[in-house]
Amino acid sequence: MVKATTVTPAEKHDEATLETPDMVNSLTPELLLAGIRKTRLVAIVRGTDGAAAAKAALAAMEEGFRFVEIALTTPGALEAISEVRAAAPEGCFVGAGTVLTVQDVDRVAAAGGQFMVTPSLAESIAESARRGIPVLAGALTPSEAYEAMNRGATAVKLFPASIGGPGYLKALRDPFPGIPFIAVGGVGLDEANGYWEAGAIAVGLGGPLFGDAGSGGDLGPMRERARGFVGLAAAFDRRTAAESLR
What distance in Å separates the CA atoms of residue 44 and residue 118, rounded to the nearest whole number? Predict the structure, then answer.
């Protein structure tokens, strides 16, 4: 059942694109982790149209997002990743979400994806790590978070974060202070500060950022929301820097 919902989008990808040699990926796990810590934001595009998803991803980058993933459940996701990789502003990176299998890793890398994101403890975690490709691994429980890091995850995507909220993240970090967590799932402008304060290195933003932009909706409101999130992260950093000097 999982295979039918996660592998099919990649299998439908045009074979000519799949045969393109892997692009050189300069994004190491260390660089991804440092970049996410600095920006505090990861954008997640999921929609019904690959061309629209690519436009939405590039718009987010233009508004200050450096790390954007395009979910493989989006029709034409691999083409969209290739398009964004070719047109991304300097210092911006595109990855793939819902990466579950070794085959998914193959195809995303061939399309130019620079990092992988999973919703669960999938085989793609160890495969990505083996290749030196950064991977944000989905986990919810303490056991899953620990296992994700054992498999080579760059960071743990706490998903769905809304189940427990910032309080759960704080409790989860008590025994695992060294695990970098990214809160994903139900995180909007009103919730982001709470997760950062609880110790998340970043928040992952899907619907609250993109709305229907990944399916062809108006990019104007999405750009405005993107500026709001970027401004919120900057304000949080200014506040915490000021507090550290007291």
Answer: 12
Distance CA 140, CA 155 (A): 13
Contacts of 192 (CB under 8 A, 6+ apart): 203, 229, 232, 233, 236
Q: How far is CA 196 from CA 39, 81, 98, 165, 206, in A?
A: 12, 28, 24, 11, 17
Q: Does the pTM exceed 0.70?
A: yes
| Structure-block tokens of residue 192 | 């982001």
118: helix, strand or coil: coil
**Hey, which residues does 94 pair with through a beta bridge?**
68
- CA 27 to chain CA centroid, nearest Å: 14
Query: CA-to-CA distance for 246 and 176, rounded, in angstroms?
Result: 28
Q: Beta partners for 69?
A: 44, 95
Q: Which residues pair with 203 in a beta bridge?
A: 41, 183
CB 189 within 8 A of CB 142: no
CA gap 116, 94 in Å, rounded: 9
Q: Are 168 and 149 in contact (CB under 8 A)?
A: no
| Per-residue pLDDT tens over the stretch 117-147 | 999 999 999 999 999 999 999 999 999 999 9
- Domain 2-8+26-244: CATH architecture, name and number where available: Alpha-Beta Barrel (3.20)
Task: Please answer whether residues 169 and 198 qualify as being in contact, where contact means their C-beta atoms are separated by less than 8 angstroms.
Answer: yes
Active site residues: 69, 157
**E strand or H helix that includes residue 158:** strand 155-158
- As a whole number, mean pLDDT of residues 20-40 equals 88
Q: What is the DSSP letter of 72?
A: T
Question: What are the domain boundaries of the chain?
Answer: 2-8+26-244
